[in-house]
Design goal:
The protein contains 9 helices and 3 strands; from the N terminus they run αααβββαααααα. The termini are far apart. The chain is mainly alpha-helical. Helix content is 52%, strand content 7%. The chain has a single domain, classed as Intergrase catalytic core (hpI Integrase, Chain A), CATH 1.10.443.10. The radius of gyration is 18 Å and the shape is globular. α1 runs antiparallel to α2. The chain has a 3-stranded antiparallel β-sheet.
Amino acid sequence: MLTHAQCVALLGAVRSPVYRGVFGVMYGCGLRIGEAVAVTVADIDAERMVIRVVGKGNKERLAPLSRALLEDLRRVWATHRHAQWAFANKRGSHHVDEGELYKVFGQVRCALKLDDEVKPHSLRHSFATRLMEQGVPVETVRILLGHASIKTTQTYLHLTVPIRRQVNAVVTGFCVSLFD
């Protein structure tokens, strides 16, 4: 799991606007890499501020879209103006290749000296963790991630410093001294 600052640094280190856009959608909307590359222009609903996502098992869900991310997506699209794909490949024949994204992510991870365990999917984990830090209920996070089971969602949630502080405050409130 990455901190918000690490995610911002990672995104800023990606040179290609299209690749940066894919990684930005993964972090900003909690998408899997396969879901992110497959986003079409028609999936982006600027009026409702959502992205239609087709996830595992062809299940559809809506991911919230911030105004800043929408503007970023518009800038990305302007670099290629593909009629179908939000993240078109250089030839304009299809969406960008996942394998190429893994390669670029690895290069950026190394350049930033991030742990080898950090993978593109870490952006999705970080999205979920940020939501939990902000007090979003785990059931809402489950829905946004497209998980069928709350248990799957719970594996994404990491005990970050803000969450540990909240837990410590609660635990301190009901603990009694064993030596009173």
